[in-house]
Structure formats: structure tokens, C-alpha cells
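quick q for whoever's on today - can somebody do inverse folding on this one?? i tried earlier but teh output was garbage lol. C-alpha cells:
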């Protein structure tokens, strides 16, 4: 099997904190929600959230992704005021205790703006900045953004998703969004792409996207892969959410082998150790 080109030597300036993408990195998930599919309600209190973020950094997370609205299949939107109430105090606290960047996982321009003001250094948007005003706000804020593909919305995305060619359609959509963002003032080096595993895709769609992830990597944008505990594992292996650690690590390794720059996960220590071994094999003899 031929390998994609190594991740280019580059760093992201995340509001004064550096994210090194010259080697694969792990993004730790911090859901400040009562209803996320895997860890809803566990870190709802600020003190618990901050303690968990610190633990993930100790285990090797290079960035912490804070979200206040569940985007699991079937999830309903929460009021913007509630999303702000959940995430802003946590981001403000993390700003002072973490040396690594914090990202804000949101679709809403109001939350993006408030989160960056509170200390977030990257915007991670499952809707690829499609909300009215989102591109303009992100360009004005000047922090890196991750654009994700999702067919439909969380409420409806798993109701019979269809594609003629999932790999090509996802890549083309993300390239169109990246082009629009650059036209609006975002620098190319500030843009990351996420194929959106599990967001409006069947298990086969997800497997094909991972099988051909190098096609998205070949665009030259850093690629983020979020595969941790996803339903594709449960549907393939018949495992409950709390039994998906090992196959999730396997998927993270496959994503890095295919060229992903960041893997987003719940289980940081095991994922990071596996990613480091994958990188050692990739880089051997270079």
C-alpha cells in the first residue's frame, strides 16, 4: 500500500496558543451537554469539565474541543442563550489553566464570537459555516476553522442518507466551502477539513470515506477525523457505546495512516499511544 504524503510542516496560531500539525495530533472531546450520545451529562458541571480537560491534556491531547449542543442523530437544537451558558464559563476557566488551545464546537456565529472572546482559539463547525453570518464572523475573528460535511441536520441526518459517490461529493462540498471562506477573507492555512463521519452517512458511506481518506488529504488542507465511539463501530461489530474503545483506536490509526492531521476522540491516552506508533512506522527510515 502506498502512503499519502506526510503532514506538511506547519503550525496553527490558535489565538496565541500553537497547534503543531507537522505530526498527527489528538483532539480531546469535552461535551458540556446532558444528552451527547456517549458522555452526555458526565462533565456538565464546570469543575468536572475543567478537571476532565486537564486530565486529557496530561494524557496527550494537543487541543480540547468544547461543545454545548449535542449533534448526535436526532438531537434537537438548544437555545443560543443556553449554549452560551454551558460553554463560556468553561472556556474562560480553561484559558487560564491549559497550555494547549481550546476549540469551540458550534454552528452559531454568536457562540463563535463569545467563545473566541472567552479564550477559544479554533472554530469547529459541523455545518461548515453555513449559518447566516458565520463565514463573516469567522473571518473577522481570525482564528483557524474546521469545516465539516453533514448531509441534512442532526435532527434528520440519519433518515436515509443517499449519495451517488460519497467520497467525491464530500470532498467537493468541502472544497466549495473552503473556497468561499477564502473569498471572504480566511487564509488557506487557517482552514481544516472534516469529512463528518456519522453525520448523514450510512455505515458503508463511513467505511468508504475512511478507505479513501487520502483523497481529502490530497487537497492540501489538514484533515480532522472524528471516529471515536461512532455508530459505525456499533453497527459493524454489534457493540454498545461503552464497548467501542479498541475499534475506535483502530479507526484512529487507519485515519492517521491515510494522512489525517488530527483525530478527535474521547479516549485520549490509548488513542495518542496508538497514533504515536503509527507515526513511528510511517516515518521509519525517512
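ok took a stab at it. sequence:
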Amino acid at each position: 500500500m502506498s502512503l499519502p504524503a506526510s503532514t506538511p510542516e506547519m503550525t496553527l496560531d490558535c489565538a496565541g496558543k500553537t497547534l503543531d500539525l507537522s505530526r498527527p495530533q489528538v483532539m480531546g472531546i469535552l461535551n458540556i451537554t446532558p444528552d451527547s450520545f456517549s458522555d452526555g451529562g458526565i462533565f456538565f458541571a464546570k469543575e468536572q469539565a475543567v478537571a476532565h480537560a486537564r486530565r486529557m491534556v496530561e494524557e496527550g491531547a494537543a487541543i480540547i474541543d468544547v461543545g454545548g449542543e449535542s449533534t448526535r442523530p436526532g438531537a434537537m437544537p438548544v437555545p443560543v442563550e443556553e449554549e452560551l451558558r454551558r460553554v463560556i464559563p468553561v472556556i474562560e476557566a480553561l484559558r487560564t489553566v491549559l497550555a494547549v488551545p481550546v476549540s469551540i464546537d458550534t454552528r452559531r456565529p454568536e457562540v463563535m464570537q463569545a467563545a473566541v472572546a472567552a479564550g477559544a482559539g479554533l472554530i469547529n463547525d459541523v455545518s461548515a459555516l453555513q449559518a447566516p453570518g458565520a463565514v463573516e464572523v469567522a473571518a473577522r475573528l481570525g482564528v483557524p476553522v474546521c469545516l465539516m460535511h453533514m448531509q441534512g441536520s442532526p435532527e434528520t441526518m440519519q433518515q436515509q442518507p443517499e449519495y451517488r459517490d460519497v467520497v467525491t461529493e464530500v470532498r467537493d462540498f468541502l472544497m466549495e466551502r473552503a473556497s468561499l471562506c477564502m473569498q471572504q477573507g480566511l487564509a488557506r492555512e487557517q482552514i481544516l477539513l472534516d469529512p463528518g463521519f456519522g453525520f448523514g452517512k450510512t455505515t458503508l458511506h463511513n467505511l468508504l470515506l475512511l478507505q479513501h481518506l487520502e483523497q481529502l488529504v490530497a487537497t492540501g488542507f489538514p484533515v480532522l477525523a472524528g471516529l471515536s465511539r461512532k455508530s459505525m463501530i456499533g453497527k459493524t461489530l454489534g457493540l454498545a457505546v461503552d464497548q467501542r474503545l479498541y475499534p475506535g483506536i483502530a479507526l484512529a490509526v487507519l485515519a492517521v495512516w491515510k494522512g489525517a492531521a488530527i483525530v478527535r476522540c474521547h479516549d485520549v491516552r490509548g488513542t495518542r499511544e496508538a497514533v504515536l506508533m503509527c507515526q513511528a512506522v510511517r516515518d521509519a527510515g525517512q
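fwiw The longest strand covers residues 25-31. also Residues 57 and 100 are 8 Å apart (CA to CA). so keep that in mind when u check it
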